[in-house]
Amino acid sequence: MTASMINLFDARLLIVDDEPVNVKLLERTLAKAGYTSIRSTMDPRQVCDLFAEHQFDLILLDLNMPHMDGFAVMRALAERFSPLPQVLVLTAQSAQEFRTQALELGARDYVTKPFERNELLHRVSNLLESKLYREGLERLNESLEHKVIERTAELNETRLQVVRRLGRAAEYRDNETGLHIVRMSKISRLLGEAMGMDDAQCDLLLNASPMHDIGKIGIPDHILLKPGKFEPDEWEIMKTHSQIGADILEGAESDLLRMAGEIALTHHEKWDGTGYPNGLQGEEIPLVGRICAIADVFDALTSERPYKRAWAVEDALKLIRENRGLHFDPAIVDAFMDNLDEILNIRDAHKEPESEQYQGD
Known about the structure:
Blueprint lengths: L2 H7 L2 E5 L3 H14 L3 E5 L5 H8 L3 E4 L8 H11 L6 E5 L4 H9 L4 E4 L4 H57 L4 H17 L4 H10 L12 H4 L7 H8 L1 H9 L5 H12 L20 H16 L10 H10 L7 H9 L1 H10 L12
Parallel strand pairs: 1-2, 1-3, 3-4, 4-5
Helix pairs in contact: 7-8, 7-13, 7-16, 8-12, 11-12, 12-13, 13-14
């Protein structure tokens, strides 16, 4: 006996008929055929509650019964359960109008009494096999959908890891650590949420902002790593990292890389139009660029590096307030101050290791 047949004979069956002799006959017929889970009721008003408790695989339903006829039972089942439980109508009513009405109400099959034993058993097994196969296909589809979701998540995580590592590559060239982009990206996400961005956009911002300085990989070492102030011509070369970053990310099809390119290009623009590379002003600067500007500046000022001491938080906040409406979008400065406790928590949770701190006099 195959596994499918074993499952078939384990099917839960409910007989609904007001005639005791009919119930007994059906019980014996089904049990002799090998079915092991058979219940019956002569009160059609119990059908819905019985189904809720036992989730029958097939209901063998009479039509002519007191209190509720078979049609009323099917309507009641349809109101409470979706999809309609599988019903085989078993009745003495042979008129075509009864058959048509039963099928319209959702019955899967229609057998007239007196029934021929083998025909009934074949119809029962056909319906149960059909249900078994449908459930198998549903489980297969669910399994495939789960695998697709898992694979998609793996691909997304791989993409995010590549993005983060490219961002870190740029930071390491500039004597930064990966913790700078962690703090900066988390602060950016917090500010994005405060500025009304939805969850999906905030997640994109979290994962795109680490690419803000990717263009620094195109700046010569003698300029990028210079410990002192830049000469005017060196500063002009240094400023090209914004456009280089945008060029690196240009043409990307994913929302993540498109946002990363937008941030790379615009995070050094200033609210008053004095920034670079394009001198954008006010809301000409994309919101994500305005957000990353303040997150990047605050973390850069308050972080120690081998070549500089960290600013005190109070001094960094003073600079941000003084540049409200100049360097920074006033609304984002307000959001920054409103969320200062959470921003400082991010800073404290991702501190630089001792080995990365300032080693000068």
